[in-house]
Specification:
Blueprint (H helix, E strand, L loop, with lengths): L10 E2 L1 E2 L8 E2 L4 E4 L10 E2 L6 E4 L3 E4 L4 E2 L9 E2 L4 E2 L12 E2 L4
Antiparallel strand pairs: 1-4, 2-3, 4-5, 6-7, 8-9, 10-11
Length: about 100
Amino acid sequence: NAKKTELSSGINAEYGGGFSHECKPCPHGMGVAAGKGYVIQSCKWLPCKAGDYLDLKLGCLKCEENTYSKGGFEKECKACPHGKGVKAGMGYDENSCKWLPCK
């Protein structure tokens, strides 16, 4: 019987079973629903944390400076309003953007 590594969200980090007697790890940042992973194509991207966006080839990436993302499966970061900014990866929503100092 294949051993499963279950994450807190009920998503397994491994796939296998069926004719295979051993589970194999999904690629980093990916997982599969418990009991649903039979081949590597079963592995899907896990939701990104706030401040990150999902690149479908590379996985979760940090938002650039002066942009924000609520995370999840958002595929791009949104720009802070004019005159406001936030450090890279620290923008979780528009409220994260703070007034920039005058030049």
